[in-house]
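User: Here's a chain of 363 residues. Predict its fold as tokens.
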Amino acid sequence: MWQQSRRRPRQTIFLTVAALCLFFGISGSAGAAGANPVVAVPSAISVSPFITASQCAFCHGSNLDNFRNPILYFKHDPHLTRGIRCGVCHTDFPHTPAGTVKPSMTVCFNCHSLRHGEAGTVASGACVACHPAGYGGAPATHTNDFRAGAHKTAAKKDYFPCLTCHDADACAACHTAKDTKPKNHANATSWKKEHGTHRDAGGCEICHSTAFCNTCHVTPMPHPARWEGEHRVAAKTMKRDCSICHADSQDECSSCHHQFKSDTLLVEKNCSTCHEDYKAPLSQLIWAPTGARNKGIIIHKAHFEMTKTDPFACEECHDRKFTASSGCFTFDLCYTCHGKTRGGSLIAKWGGQELCYRCHQKK
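Assistant: Prediction complete.
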């Protein structure tokens, strides 16, 4: 019994090894002759969306750059050594039943020529960094008709691919020479007043340099990379300049600034640093000319530092996701305190219409 029990594991090991040999295509005769076993390369490659270099190694081995393209110099190593994942450039698996999928130049320019603040350019945007000197091949789509005017359709849809070959000066030189302007620039007077509202469409910098913008704007245009963290000082002294583009400051400024204030106490010092209206007496705010004051400021001002309660936190009335343009609450929320009693005493005065008359005249 003991010997029999000892033989079974050996038999199991032998069968397992034999199965593995058959699976990987290892010849028994080759093994007996002492030759190195040959492992068959799988005929199917996993084309999962998560792309790794190991998937390519079955066919390419360690030389991922073994491809022929006379107009392109490219090395994987400089990218891999910087920790750049394959999927950053290969947004689709390189090989498909329909053929090879190559990254477009717009993918390259997510890093090449990109200036990362004071750290400088992330990677060179010069043509000779990837293409032979003197290479100036144009895509097949760039026909004479395309150059003459049809290119504007593609540029309007997305001008970023254009900038991978053409710099802003090249576009501006041609358009200026031919006095070619967008339709919305036709009326110079009206466009001067409304152009700030179109800033999100982008492309202004193709024709207009910072020096050109600064003939009218005191604020640096377009804003420098670190402007978001530095604009506070400028906003206090150049409000009029800011309002040219940021016309609805209540919406635009609040949607950013108030997201950091969701747990702030509702006291004057936390609000008056940005909103000077809070420094005025409440009576002056309530009876100001129609439209001259922000109604929200009146409501907040009335709840500053209540005498019989701790200061309110913003989130007690506002949801944490509140922004100025999203609405905030219904008056049902107000009546959870106003007009209600606790222990025989009013929590807050003015219930029903009486609360409305605090801000609105009875008529």
